[in-house]
Amino acid sequence: MFKKKPTIKNLSPLRSSDRRKLADQIISDYRIAIPSTPGEASDVTPTNPAQPTLTSIRNALLPENCLSARFTTTAGPDLREVQGTVYVGTHSDGDERVLWFKIDQGPGAEKRLYPTVYMLWHNANIVPLLHTPEFVMGKLRSGADLMTPGLANEPPFDERAVKGAVVAVASLDRVAVPLFVGVCEIDVSALGEVQGTKGHAVRGIHWEGDELWAWSPSSRPGVPAPEYLEGWDEVEEEREAGIEEKVQGLELEDKDGQEVEADAAEPAHEAAEEPIAEKEPTTKEIDDAFEKAFLYSLYKLKQDNPSTPNHGLSLPISPSAFMANMITPYLPVYTAQQAQYYQIKKTSWKNVKKFL
């Protein structure tokens, strides 16, 4: 959404009553646990290491110095105007950055507040965290949506990752660092498997490296993501511990119904099978994949924008925008090795201009 630099108007301070109201809305929308007594733990990891209270959670979500401003930008291939509100604040160890934004008019308009990566880097577990390989994360940084086959780590996924839920995505290279924020297009939590699936899983709305990440009132450059964050990895560890507990609770039975000790059970395979190297596709197969990706992108534009001129396709289109928006997201790439095969230079056209 913020591939183009937004126009942000003059910032104004939030009244204390408005700040509390917005913080309470966030707590409600994202189902953030509030301790009933001062000693209880909370799902939120605030900047202040003291025991969380309602006040400290509010301050972690919307700092006392929070400002707001109206913004405008454009989104989608047809460059439709988007209007909304940004909420700018400062955490204890940084400068002023956009922490939340709300879309009031245009595609995706609703009353919900969306967190930026700066907010997620200071508040762990306020949204579900999904994972994807680093080469897929590179596509997300170019504005692509996360396709279902791009989901890493086997199910079960976070039960909060239902259709319409706001989620964050991290790279497998840095599993505890959210880099991408989006909205689930499907019920990810209900997926039983990922391989062989198709379609969009998460629609991207903001990511590290976009123009919202790069903006600051003082015109300072965007802050790179940290290498590690406490809190987010604990969520993944709890998920893995739950799976391990379920596996350990399974009992093996023989065909007569008698329990069998796990140690006595014969292994299904004497040794793990050697991974099969993926066969490199032929030039014709790569050409076919590019043509099918192009045709599917046209079909999707027509389906998503039935009454818009050119079905939302802005012409002329640059080669880089053509590849990023109409080809790359729909190529059959599920592994890093496949990503090396399906490149324009390996087609018979060799470059985008000839392909067009």
TrEMBL record:
One of its GO terms (biological process) is formation of translation preinitiation complex. It comes from Emericella nidulans (strain FGSC A4 / ATCC 38163 / CBS 112.46 / NRRL 194 / M139). Residues 254-279 are annotated as: Disordered. GO terms for molecular function: translation initiation factor activity. This is RNA binding protein Ligatin/Tma64, putative (AFU_orthologue AFUA_1G12570). Residues 127-211 form the Eukaryotic translation initiation factor 2D-like PUA RNA-binding domain. Coiled coil: none annotated. Residues 266-279 have a biased composition (Basic and acidic residues). Residues 2-122 form the Pre-PUA domain. Residues 254-264 have a biased composition (Acidic residues). Residues 287-356 form the eIF2D winged helix domain. InterPro entries: EIF2D, Pre-PUA, PUA-like_sf, PUA_eIF2d-like, WH_eIF2D. Pfam families: Pre-PUA, PUA_elF2D, WHD_eIF2D.
